[in-house]
Amino acid sequence: MAYPAQGRTIIDETKRINMALLMKMGMVDPGKKVICPLEWSENFKVGAKLGIYSLNHRLAGTGCLQLEYKCNGEDIEYKIPIVSRKSNLPQQSLIYFFECSVTKKLCRKLFFNGRVFVHQSQIDGYYECQTLSRKARDFDRLVGYMFGPNNIDEQLAKKNLKRWYNGLPTKRYKKLMIWKRRISLMTRDEIDGIIINGCL
C-alpha cells in the first residue's frame, strides 16, 4: 500500500547523524575529545564536539556529542549523551549508541526534525519506497537486482551468504533465487524496455 507523501517528511531526504559514519571519520576515540564540522550542504553546517571517555577500552564507556549550529537565525547548542554496550563479537569490544534527548531511546542514527536531532520515532514521515505503489516498488527492486548496487549475481557470489540452515534454504537465499529465476525468464524486449523506457 502506498502512503500519501503530502505534508509528510521523506525520511530518506532527512539530514541525519550516523554513529557508524562518525566512527569511520575517527571521531569516536575513547578518552579523547574530537572537534569536527559536519556538513550536509553549503548552508547547513554543524560544529560537533565529541568526547568518549572510558578507563578501559574493554569496559562500557560514556560520553557526549555536543552540537553547535544556527537554525532559522537561532543559535542552537546542546549535548546528546552517548553510551556504549559490550559487543558479542570478538573483534569489536564496544558498540556506541546515541541517547535521544527527547525519547531517551538508544539509536545509531539521529534525524533532524527541523530544529534538533532526535530518534526516528519523532519524525512524522515515510521512507520514499513507502510512497510508491506495490508495482513501482517491485520495479525498483527488479532494476536494482539487474543493474544497481544489489546485483543479484554479485549477492549470490558473496562468501558470507548463508544459503542453508538445518538442511533448509534460508529465507534470504530463497528470495534471491526467486528473483534470479524471474530475471532469467525475461525476454530481450523486456530488458530493452527497462533500459530504454524505464518500464516493462
How would you describe this structure to a colleague?
The chain has 200 residues and is of the alpha+beta class. The protein has 2 domains: 9-125, no CATH class; 132-197, no CATH class. It contains 5 helices and 13 strands. The protein has helices spanning 19-24, 134-146, 152-157, 171-184, 188-197; strands spanning 9-10, 16-18, 32-41, 44-53, 62-71, 74-86, 94-99, 106-107, 109-112, 117-118, 125-126, 164-165, 168-169. The strands form 4 sheets. A 6-stranded antiparallel β-sheet has the order 3-4-5-6-7-8, with no helix packed on it. It has a 3-stranded antiparallel β-sheet with strand order 2-9-10. A hairpin with a 4-residue loop joins strand 9 and strand 10 (117-118). The longest helix is centred in the last third of the chain and has 14 residues, at 171-184.
